[in-house]
Design a protein that fits this description.
Helix 3 links the parallel strand 8 and strand 9. Strands 3, 4, 5, 6, 7, 14 and 15 form a seven-stranded mixed beta sheet that branches. Strands 10-9-8-11-12-13 form a six-stranded parallel beta sheet, sandwiched between helices. A two-stranded antiparallel ribbon has the order 1-2. The chain has two domains: 140 residues, Quinone Oxidoreductase, Chain A, domain 1 (Alpha-Beta Complex); 139 residues, Medium-chain alcohol dehydrogenases, catalytic domain (Quinone Oxidoreductase, Chain A, domain 1), CATH 3.90.180.10. The model has no long low-confidence stretch (mean pLDDT 93). With 323 residues, it is an alpha/beta fold. It is built from nine helices and 15 strands.
């Protein structure tokens, strides 16, 4: 079969190559891939710094080709899943990971949504322990994961969702997604605006995609007993931490990643998405925004668009051999 391989040595950083097709084991499903998305972590993998699979990609959507007789999935099911090496004609994954596509969704929508759904739900429900009626701050809110997290926060009963972005150019779009307030972070100081938006209470759950540069402001903006969930480090990993304020407010800082989770932990996240968000998925309330769809042979160009921040929504690649 063909796959997009992270190349070593001279030549393009990612190359279409012929590799051996994967073989399914008990407890796994074989999926014919129809689409996959482009993610920030792909840029690190391309540079050889993310411990990536030899095959590029972190997710996919497609059709189940083989499954165990007692599996919850069956051949012909349309699914989306996280998977190391999604840019291949076929993948095998633990059969607890795939999530069925809503009937109205295309494969491209599934590829655009699955990683964001699992990341956002885990950050809010598991790591952030969001309780209905609490407030949420999502920074880097115009990103694919940020957009999904805004919607998920509303589905989980947040009383107020604040979107933080460097520029207010997409303020109306973010409010249409479900943000009650949009705060600009371009000046570097935004805690006062967040406290004002929460009548001085501060934010109960902060979903952080920026990292170190925002840490000091997040601590200042958090409510007593707030939770700061570190999902990404787009701005860098190092920041200034006021331990006195951390202690006074009794804050928690929780780091999350898929890279150190085993299949059982990933399966628990997928199960949480099914349990909490199925009605919203099938009701059209979590439809992802797709910026553009490109053939998988344009993967390097797609990653360049992502790196340049020239998009609003997900960039999706079609695996044409399986179209």
């Amino acid at each position: 079969m063909q796959a997009m391989m992270v190349a070593q040595g001279p030549g393009p950083a990612i190359q279409l190559r012929e590799i051996e097709a994967p073989e399914r084991s008990a407890g796994q499903v074989l999926i014919g891939v129809r689409a996959a998305s482009v993610n920030r972590a792909d840029l690190a993998a391309r540079g050889g710094t993310h411990g990536a699979s030899t095959v590029a990609g972190l997710d996919c959507a497609g059709v189940v080709l083989e499954a165990d007789a007692d599996s919850a999935l069956a051949p012909g099911d349309r699914v989306m899943t996280i998977v190391g090496g999604g840019l291949a004609e076929r993948v095998v994954v633990d059969d607890r990971l795939p999530i069925r596509l809503p009937d109205a969704w295309s494969f491209e929508m599934g590829a655009a949504a699955v990683l964001a759904l699992m990341t956002g739900h885990n950050a809010l429900r598991t790591a952030g322990r969001l309780i209905p009626g609490e407030t949420v701050l999502v920074n880097a809110a115009r990103s694919g994961v940020g957009q999904a997290t805004i919607r998920i926060a509303n589905e989980l009963g947040a009383s107020r969702v604040i979107a933080a972005v460097r520029s207010l150019r997409d303020e109306e779009f973010l409010k249409e997604l479900g943000a009650d307030t949009v705060v600009g972070t371009g000046s570097g100081a935004f805690a006062d605006a967040i406290r004002a938006a929460t009548d001085g209470h501060g934010v109960d759950v902060i979903v952080d995609h920026v990292g170190g540069p925002y840490l000091e402001q997040h601590v200042a903006a958090a409510a007593v007993k707030g939770r700061i969930v570190g999902v990404g480090r787009l701005g860098g990993a190092l920041g200034s931490l006021d331990l006195e304020t951390l202690a006074f407010k009794r804050l928690e800082i929780v780091g999350v990643t898929f890279r150190t989770r085993d299949n059982a932990e990933k399966a628990a996240i997928a199960a949480g998405v099914r349990a909490d968000l199925s009605a919203a998925l099938h009701g059209g309330r979590l439809d992802p925004r797709i910026d553009r769809i490109m053939p998988w042979t344009d993967v390097l160009e797609a990653q360049d668009v992502l790196a340049a921040d020239e998009h609003l929504g997900k960039i999706v690649l079609t695996v044409s051999a399986n179209a």
